[in-house]
Amino acid sequence: MILNFGSINIDNVYQVLRFPNAGETISAKGLKKVLGGKGINQTIAAQRAGAAIFHIGHVGEDEWILDQLSKMGVDKKFIYSGAGVTGHAIIYVNLEGENEIVLHAGANEEFKHEKCDEILDEFIDEKPWVILQNEINLSLEIAIKAKQLGFKVCYSAAPFSAESINKILPYVDLLAMNETEMKELQNSSDKNVVDFGVAMTLVTLGSRGAELYIHGEVIKQSSFDIKPVDTTGAGDTFLGSFIARYDCGESVKSALQYASGAAAIQITRMGAAPAIPTYNQVEEFLNEKVQ
Ligand code: RIB
After folding, report:
1. Which end of the chain is more exposed for a tag (fewer CB within 10 A), N or C?
2. Rounded mean pLDDT of 60-67?
3. pLDDT attached to residue 73
């Protein structure tokens, strides 16, 4: 069982030949409006990988986003609509599939202390994993309460903030970062990745795969040789898939391989959440690619 207290965004994706320079105006070659947000991307990846997961999130009064969540099969029991705008992102995707993202948090910062405590208390018997990212308010408070209840906490250090991560780290069981975030954390704390004091640290390395630091050991997962169309949400897909398969009882090695397959398929499609593959699609891909 997993609870994801996570962001939900409208991603406005502009396809560009290259990124604009400061002060420059360029024309986009295409525009897509899709469901995104690190939180909901992770939830959909985990759900498609077979996990029992509830997403706890806030949106504006926005039929489009609620409709998208329904289409993706997200249970809306803990999705709250209120005044204010739904979180959104302006995303540029270039010809190499790389992106640049500007976020507006909007309703993602509408989490209320009492309500979060109430939801956590409801799952006391299940002792679920709790997933958090740095795209919502109250991450630290939720992590502290979750640990008090004996739950396990997974934290994505994105968007990166040295201050937030250093505060939350003592309550985290699985820390997830990309390579840039790991370097920023190492520089800001003067510690090596193995010295963060976290049970598991997952570092995604893009086309070079991923590494999982666990009990003083590092397990490496290579990536598949794929030409990316859009890498937005690849890290979220990797993490959501990994935690789902691990929570379902698979070994870390097998969960890492599944996550790598899911991310490889996801980057061949435009958009974040809608690009996340189903369990069967990932299994078919792995049967073909892994000897
Ligand atoms: O990780 C990708 C996500 O980051 C996008 O979907 C965007 O909404 C931002 O949250």
Report:
1. C
2. 96
3. 97
What is the per-residue pLDDT across 207-264, written as a single tens digit (0 to 9) for each? 999 999 998 899 999 999 999 999 999 999 999 999 999 999 999 999 999 999 999 9
Q: Of the residues 7, 101, 132, 133, which should be mutated to test ligand 1's pocket, given the most ligand atoms within 8 Å of the CB?
A: 101
Distances (CA, A) of 221 to 90, 164, 178, 211, 252: 31, 28, 14, 6, 10
**What is the distance in A from the centroid of ligand 1 to the CA of 46?**
16
Pocket of ligand 1 (CB under 6 A): 7, 9, 11, 36-38, 41, 89, 101, 103, 135, 232-233, 236, 272
Cβ atoms < 10 Å from Cβ of 117:
14
**Residue with the nearest Cα to atom 2 of ligand 1?**
233
- For a ligand 1 pocket test, name from 34, 38, 88 the mutation site with the most ligand atoms within 8 angstroms of its C-beta: 38
CATH of domain 2-7+36-86+106-289: 3.40.1190.20
Q: Among 85, 72, 64, 56, which Cα is nearest to 273's?
A: 72
- Domain boundaries defined on the chain: 2-7+36-86+106-289
